[in-house]
Specification:
14 helices, alpha/beta, 19 strands, binds flavin-adenine dinucleotide
């Protein structure tokens, strides 16, 4: 394999994790992020056991863990009556079953942890304010073209430039995100502003006709993250448009009192149209590869967007260490990751139909949740949570 550095375009969770994984194999990495600084923005992320395992493989879990919140339980509730439908304890038993804990964190804390470990390796050159416009293979090397006119040469390029990737076309042709007729709202509230009737130490999922709401504490218990998803025409203007509590409440008319008081708590909401990617024909072409949302963006209903990017990075690093060339490493990475992420995308779409059911379907769902033991309910998530970097080989 060439001694040139690996080039990474995009410094979100996926790009930083990829850089970290490659640095861990002894490679030099040059990372280019278009924003003027690594964006410590966003809101809450659920870090399921497979995400914790990926972070361990990347050597970053110790750095991220202190900023994660340990929720006590996951609750599923009927958003109209408030009734508890399912309760899953996240303590010792859960951790023993899956070999890793379940945590929640703020995206900024995950990003900060990855950055700190990345800087500590001494092998990653971190560039901000550098927009990549194209990538190409050229006589055995890979090149990344930057808007400054610079042409960076490397052993390989990894494009981790998100769902609206501009670099994707070089590998997979012109593929646009698909709007999925759902509007997503999110807000962060100081913990002391959370209405007392809301259990602030749990991850709670409220199921409503035509929508659902998820909330949990983040940022060392300082903030409370709320995500609301409402079926709609998917033609909402803007990517991160401002929204009001009144708008969110109107989308959930008929919600129980607890939810109504929760909708009123944030001073501001952000709104964006839910979208994902169709199956790409391929994720790699020679020594060029796609990673994270650029390859397999999904709706956030299994809470696996960031976690899948971490898994990608762990597998990409392992294959780079094991294979004789970047091209063969990227092929092996693609072959291992594509089926799993396709299943996540498909199941995330399916979850919206189940979570947003109304009428007889909602009654049947609620009855099933009521009758199912927590152990049975968790069994349906085993294929996600039991992932290990080694098993992916
Ligand atoms: C600002 C922001 C906030 C988010 N907040 C949340 C959240 O609260 N909860 C949640 O579940 N998910 C959130 N996400 C999405 C979540 O982080 C992703 O699903 C997951 O982390 C996969 O990340 P990614 O690195 O593949 O893509 P992204 O997180 O989208 O990162 C892509 C990065 O590439 C950069 N980039 C794009 N094009 C170029 C280019 N041409 N050249 C150089 N750099 C480029 C972008 O600026 C960005 O930093 C957020 C994403 C972003 C960008």
């Amino acid at each position: 394999m060439s001694d040139l550095p690996f080039l990474v375009a995009g410094g979100g969770i996926g790009g930083l994790a990829a850089a970290l994984g490659l640095a861990g194999t002894g490679r030099a990495v040059r990372l280019f992020e278009q924003a003027p600084a690594f964006e410590e923005v966003g809101a809450g992320l659920q870090m399921s056991p497979n995400g914790v395992r990926a972070l361990r493989a990347l050597g970053a879990w110790e750095a991220v863990a202190p900023s994660c919140v340990i929720p006590s339980e996951i609750h599923m509730r009927d958003g109209r009556t408030g009734a508890l439908l399912q309760r899953i304890r996240l303590g010792k038993g859960f951790e023993e079953r899956f070999g890793a804990p379940y945590r929640v964190c703020h995206r900024a804390d995950l990003l900060a942890g990855l950055l700190a470990v990345g800087r500590g390796t001494g092998r990653i050159e971190l560039n901000t304010g550098r927009h990549a416009t194209a990538m190409e293979e050229h006589e055995g090397t890979a090149r990344l073209v930057l808007d400054s006119g610079e042409m960076a040469a490397g052993a390989a390029v990894i494009a981790a430039d998100g769902i609206r990737s501009g670099l994707r076309a070089a590998i997979a042709g012109n593929v646009a995100p698909v709007p999925r007729r759902v509007t997503l709202y999110r807000a962060l509230v100081p913990l002391e502003k959370v209405p007392p009737e809301i259990e602030a130490d749990c991850v709670t999922l409220w199921l409503c006709p035509g929508g659902h709401v998820v909330h949990y504490p983040v940022s060392n218990w300082r903030s409370f993250n709320i995500l609301a998803a409402a079926d709609g025409d998917g033609r909402d203007a803007g990517w991160h448009a401002p929204a009001t509590s009144g708008e969110v409440a109107r989308r959930f008319s008929g919600a129980c009192e607890e939810l109504e008081s929760l909708f009123a708590a944030p001073a501001a909401w952000l709104r964006w149209p839910g979208a994902d990617l169709p199956q790409l024909p391929r994720w790699s072409h020679g020594n060029l590869a796609l990673l994270g949302d650029a390859a397999h963006a999904s709706l956030p209903f299994l809470a696996q967007g960031a976690v899948m990017a971490l898994e990608d990075a762990a597998v990409l690093a392992r294959e780079t260490a094991a294979q004789p060339s970047a091209a063969s490493a990227f092929r092996a990475y693609q072959d291992q990751r594509k089926p799993r992420t396709a299943r996540i995308q498909e199941q995330s779409r399916r979850m919206s139909r189940i979570y947003h059911a109304s009428g007889a379907l909602a009654l049947a769902r609620n009855l099933t949740l009521n009758l199912a033991s927590p152990s049975f309910a968790l069994g349906r998530l085993e294929w996600i949570y039991r992932w290990t970097p080694e098993a992916a080989a």
